[in-house]
Amino acid sequence: MLALAGRSALADQCAWVTKDQGDRAAALLRAGPAAFLEYCEPCGDAPPTKASPKPIAIDATGQRAIEVRSVNDDAVEVFVNGSEVDLAYTFVRRGTDEWRNVARLVGCEATDVSDVVRIPGDGAPAPKAKAKAKANANDRPSLRSVESELTAALAHLDSIGASGEPDAEAHVARARRALEAAVKELQLAQQKR
Fold first, then answer.
1. For 79, phi and psi rounded to 5 degrees?
2. What Cα–Cα distance (Å) separates residue 176 from each residue in 59, 155, 159?
């Protein structure tokens, strides 16, 4: 009985978060690739493999199936594909084989979890794709992938701004304006294509 109580206590580190944290988590899940990773290290989950990431479904409105639902006046829950997720054990892709902990990105205190999980070979291009990329040295990342990274950077800036450090809000506000302008430029460039 004690083992079960301990496991359920661990399982709810960042299941309920502030509205701001929930909104930023939803933005991160909407911004990157349409997949997420659930990995509960304190629960004893096996290390993730290439097959571990889960797709994020598209809802009836054509948007990713991500919701932020109010629990009470002070807390919200984040749902992906209709199921509640604990942000402490939820990771978003931020590189070819790198997954970042959502709780840490939005400022929710979580213990015994990694900031970054690496899945070697996850998302690595196939040999033909590598050869094609080498053949065309002028290839650039897609505007959509750059926009996703900028949006994630905005969410990360928000978490820094909420840190309470002196002058953090002013620095974050300047960086945020610059990133928002870059996102708008990218969106305009996409429309012109």
1. -115, 135
2. 29, 9, 12
Amino acid making up residue 145: S
Domain count, the chain: 2
Summary mean pLDDT of the chain:
76
Half-sphere exposure of 114 (CA within 13 A, CB side): 17
Distance (Å, rounded) from C-alpha 185 to C-alpha 179?
Answer: 10
Question: Is 174 exposed, middle or buried, given 0-12, 13-18 or 19+ CB atoms closer than 10 A?
Answer: exposed
Q: Considering only CA atoms, which of 33, 24, 78, 23 is closest in space to residue 54? A: 33
Q: Which domain holds residue 20?
A: 1-124
Please tell me whether residues 187 and 115 are part of one structural domain. no
Q: What is the pLDDT of residues 18-27, one digit of tens each?
A: 999 999 999 9
Report pLDDT digits (tens) over 76-125. 999 999 999 999 999 998 877 889 999 999 999 999 999 999 988 766 44
Residues 84, 164 within the same domain: no
Q: 56 and 144 in one domain? A: no
Same domain, 174 and 87: no
Q: Are residues 2 and 34 in the same domain?
A: yes
Query: β-strand 35-38 against 90-93: which pairing, if any?
Result: antiparallel
35 and 72 together in one domain: yes
